[in-house]
Amino acid sequence: MNLRQHEGRDGYKVWLSSDELDKLIEAAPNASAGIAFALGGRCGLRSQEVADVTPKDIQHTDAGPILRVVGKGEKYREAWIPDQLVTRIETAASFRDMPDHLPIVQSSGDSRKVSTRTLRRWIADAAAELVIQSDDDAWAQVSFHDLRRSWATNLAAAGVDPILVLDVGGWNDLETFLDHYRGSYSPEAHRREREKVAWL
Fold it and tell me: DSSP 3-state assignment of 148?
C-alpha cells in the first residue's frame, strides 16, 4: 500500500496492490459490498457507476466480457470485467431472482439502488476491520475512489498501454490520468525499483 497526502485538504490518496484489493473485497461487510468493491477495484468504476450497474450491462465480446456503462458527464464507455466477477454477479442475480434491469448492488437486500454514502460506509467498515486484522492504520485512509485509482495503477503496473487505460477508464484527457492515476505509486513499481538497489 502506498499513500500520498492530498494537496490542499486532509487525508491521503491510497494505491492498493492487487493482493490488497483482494483483502479489501474479502473484508466486505456483505455480498453487495463485495461486488461493489470488485466493480471499483477490478473494473475501475466510479461510485455512481457502481450504484447503477445492472446484470444487463454485462456484454460478452470477442475481446472478453465488458460492462457498458454511462458514467460521469453522461459519457458512455466499455469497462473490462473479470470472468469471476461476471459469474459472481450472474449468480447473485439468479439467487435473488431479480430482473436484469435492476441494480446489482443493493442496499439492505431490497431492490433499491445503493447510495454513494452507503458505498463510503461499507469501505470504512471493511477498512476498520483490516486495521484490526493487520494492525496497520493505513487501511483507515482507504476511500471508495482509491479502488479506481488502484485499478488504473495496477493496469499500468501490468504494462497495459496508458492510452487504452484512459479509454477503458473513461478519462477525458491523458494529463488528468497521468497526474492522478499513473503507476509510479504502485507497490509493484516500488518493489521493481527497489530490486535495482543492492543494499536494500
Answer: helix
The answer to whether 39 and 50 are in contact (CB under 8 A) is yes
Domain definitions of the chain by residue range: 2-194
Is residue 28 within 8 Å of 122, Cβ to Cβ?
Answer: yes
Contact 169, 177 (CB under 8 A): yes
Query: What tens digit of pLDDT does each residue of 133-148 get?
Result: 999 999 999 999 999 9
pTM for the whole structure: 0.89
The CA-based angle 100-45-119, given to 5 degrees, is 80
What is the distance between the alpha carbons of residues 178 and 191, in angstroms, rounded to a whole number? Answer: 20
Q: For the domain bounded by 2-194, which CATH number is listed?
A: 1.10.443.10
Side-chain half-sphere exposure of 47, counting CA atoms within 13 A: 14
Give me the residues paired with residue 69 across strands.
77
φ/ψ of residue 65, rounded to 5: -70, 145
Where b means 16+ CB within 10 Å and e means fewer, 50-60 reads bbbbbbebbee
